[in-house]
């Protein structure tokens, strides 16, 4: 009998919809009991595979698996752990094969961003180098939206919807207060290298909100920025600034790194938002408020984009279908067919072309002054945040599922992860 | 003809549902054209009354007024401006009466918290002292939930729902990441004097989340707090801290005031969240993330509590009904009849008993260790966050209304606000 169980793992920072991809993988696998036995999940991602800490998803009811579709975060645990090259750490790859062999695993589904696409690609090559047949499929996921080939990455649309909505709502608040109180509101968002998430904040502009975006792609120029703030406040009475955590000075220093020290002289970690807010206050005396969305933005399943949820699920399902069709070393992608009405289909990318390639925001998506987005960018973003997909609520709170995560019996000795 | 127009103004920090109260006032007034002529709104709150900057709400369509029910913030503008006593600034009260007289205003609806209840009470006494008949009704509103007599304050339930949901969602995220990355997540919430909002974060506990709350009511003890964090992390693998902006040391210093200085020695304003997060990091080396919700929490109409929206609307409607019944110097209240099933009715409180009285969290709502909430507190909170009341969405974003806010023609000379 050929190996017919599947392994699924979540990798890197989790999102509001990564579990929707898990749901797509598991539900689709369950529809093919003749071809796929059990789906084992790695507890804490790939670490679970290395340490033979496998979760038996077949112990979960259909209802529990269905609930993954509307449950944020990584239901099986994720990790930040990148496998080195086969040459640098052959031992880890050999261990992976041992675990796969011991548990009859023939399919490897890896749900993550750029780094995990690379790992997945390495695993896809193991059949040849280590003589054990395994099909490796990468399921795209990242709020950073930086995977190549695919039009967008599941996880991003929901963060974008959350940031656009929050920017709009908080800006309405500031507009109400500006006469005697807050005139400038600063919202810090994720995105160390790319301004995709920050760009979503600028969507509030079409709702009458004066927004300035500080992108990681545009070197920060304090004098020019302050002049822009002043112009907005004088014209509109208030202004909202959306600052990416990756916004930085020409010398590469992040805005967040201001060399601040506490009373005892210890270096103090702060955010970019308070730095920007204090800068504005010092220049003009404007009252300000600031917020740092942090995990709230990527966990906000209550405000997920319906488009994003559907695509996340579809990527999981397509991954299994590709595997059943005999494909290896590929990643399902979103292919955009049209903006308005929005239409898309599932595509397929060879992992060799995905691994270690980062997609940046196109220059033509950032407005000429560097503080906003162009119509092309809006046309790209709006379909991705469209539709609502509310989770069920119970007693006032979302009814998210926590799985049993029952362990598969170990068959091998211990293995230490470095 | 007796004065028959009404004046409505929004005061202090706005909320996700203060416009629902405005909607209740205006829709109810429109149902009584024989008794109430036009509803004029103060542009930027009471400042609009003093400067005769009135908005003619009769210029708005029924649809636009209905949309106020699901639009956060203050549609007419709010302000932070407290009238002094009649003795200290008689000029302002005389001006109010001049404006009321010039525009035939016989009803004064003031939508705010403790300070505005006091102002409203003063205005209610003007008939006697300045000889102009005006009925003054206070419509309760405050995310701080600190008005007396009423069971709760419109605005609070929605913030509580947002904070409880966000704490739950972000904690699921941390739980996923804790193995190799973030172990402690710190969320800073509003509440300088009372821990009502922070308390809502502890509702995530019933969903398996280890939560520690830092209340303004409990003096901060660093050693004891760090021991509690360590215990949670060792037992659960992770921990979430919800810190109130008002959390402080025994000497009264806020956690946020750490005397931090930037590279140039300038005092730096930060939040309590990064201070707490860095403290944990220094003690145990745990990786952390922190968020500051700030305006996001009180503007989050997309996640409003249905109970809260209904009560906000009902308070506006009841205010008009009280006025039509000839009442003066009163505030509609929420009277809780039972917790489960939740039942409430509209009550009525004399403003003399509301003005300048602050309601604190009962001691029996905070758990013995000072870091959590009791069952009594949960029983109180859960009904207030119950039900969802989503706004309509268009192209991915909530479709909030911006009114025309057409000015009423001035009839008086200018007046300078101090």
Could you walk me through the main structural features you see in this protein, from its secondary elements to its overall organization?
- Chains A, B: It catalyses: beta-D-fructose 6-phosphate + diphosphate = beta-D-fructose 1,6-bisphosphate + phosphate + H(+).
- Chains A, B: Its EC number is 2.7.1.90.
- Chains A, B: Residues 9-291 form the Phosphofructokinase domain.
- Chains A, B: It is found in: Cytoplasm.
- Chains A, B: InterPro entries: ATP_PFK, PFKA, Phosphofructokinase_dom, PKF_sf, PPi-PFK.
- Two copies of one chain form a homodimer.
- Chain A is α/β, with parallel strands linked by helices and 418 residues long.
- The first copy, chain A, folds into two domains: 5-142 and 303-356 and 388-398, Rossmann fold; 156-299, Phosphofructokinase domain (Rossmann fold, 3-Layer(aba) Sandwich), CATH 3.40.50.
- Helices cover 35% and strands 17% of the residues of chain A.
- Chain A has 14 helices and 13 strands.
- Chain A has helices spanning 18-30, 46-50, 62-67, 90-102, 114-124, 126-130, 156-177, 196-201, 222-236, 272-284, 295-299, 306-324, 351-354, 375-384, and strands at residues 5-10, 39-42, 54-56, 105-112, 135-140, 184-189, 211-214, 239-244, 288-292, 330-339, 342-350, 393-394, 397-398.
- In chain A, the strands form four sheets. Chain A has a five-stranded mixed beta sheet, sandwiched between helices. A four-stranded parallel beta sheet of chain A has the order 7-8-6-9, with helices on both faces. Chain A has a two-stranded antiparallel ribbon with strand order 10-11.
- In chain A, helix 9 (222-236) links the parallel strand 7 and strand 8.
- In chain A, helix 1 runs parallel beside helix 12.
- Chain A is elongated.
């Amino acid at each position: 009998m050929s190996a017919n169980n599947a392994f699924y793992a979540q990798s890197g920072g989790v999102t509001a919809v990564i579990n929707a991809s898990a749901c797509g993988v598991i539900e689709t696998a369950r529809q093919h009991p003749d071809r796929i036995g059990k789906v084992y999940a790695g507890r804490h991602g790939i670490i679970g595979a290395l340490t033979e800490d496998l979760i038996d998803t077949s112990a979960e009811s259909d209802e529990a698996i269905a609930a993954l579709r509307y449950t944020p975060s990584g239901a099986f645990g994720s990790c930040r752990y990148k496998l080195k090259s086969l040459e640098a750490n052959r031992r880890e790859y050999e261990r992976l094969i041992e675990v796969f062999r011991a548990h009859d695993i023939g399919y490897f589904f890896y749900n993550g961003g750029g780094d995990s696409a690379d790992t997945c690609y390495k695993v896809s090559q193991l059949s040849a180098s280590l003589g054990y047949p395994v099909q490796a499929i990468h399921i795209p996921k990242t709020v950073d939206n930086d995977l190549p080939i695919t039009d967008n990455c599941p996880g991003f649309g929901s963060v974008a919807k959350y940031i656009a909505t929050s920017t709009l709502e908080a800006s309405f608040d500031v507009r109400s207060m500006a006469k005697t109180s807050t005139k400038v509101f600063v919202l810090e968002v994720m995105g160390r290298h790319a301004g995709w998430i920050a760009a979503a904040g600028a969507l509030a502009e079409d709702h009458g909100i004066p927004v300035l975006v500080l992108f990681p792609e545009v070197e920060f120029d304090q004098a020019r920025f302050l002049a822009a703030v002043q112009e907005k406040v004088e014209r509109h009475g208030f202004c909202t600034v959306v600052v990416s955590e990756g916004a930085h000075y020409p010398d590469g220093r992040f805005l967040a790194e201001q060399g601040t020290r506490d009373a005892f002289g210890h270096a103090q970690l702060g955010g970019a938002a308070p730095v920007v807010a204090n800068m504005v206050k010092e220049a003009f005396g404007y009252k300000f408020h600031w917020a740092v969305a942090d995990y709230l933005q990527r966990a906000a399943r209550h405000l997920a984009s319906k488009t994003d949820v559907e695509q996340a699920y579809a990527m999981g399902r397509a991954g299994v279908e590709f595997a059943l069709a005999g494909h290896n070393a590929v990643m399902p992608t979103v292919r955009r067919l049209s903006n308005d009405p929005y239409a898309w289909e599932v595509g397929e990318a060879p992992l060799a072309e995905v691994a270690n390639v980062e997609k940046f925001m196109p220059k033509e998506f950032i407005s000429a002054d560097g503080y906003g987005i162009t119509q092309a960018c809006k046309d790209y973003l709006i379909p991705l945040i469209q539709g609502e997909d509310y989770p069920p609520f119970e007693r006032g709170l979302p009814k998210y599922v926590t799985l049993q995560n029952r362990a598969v019996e170990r068959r091998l000795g211990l293995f230490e992860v470095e």
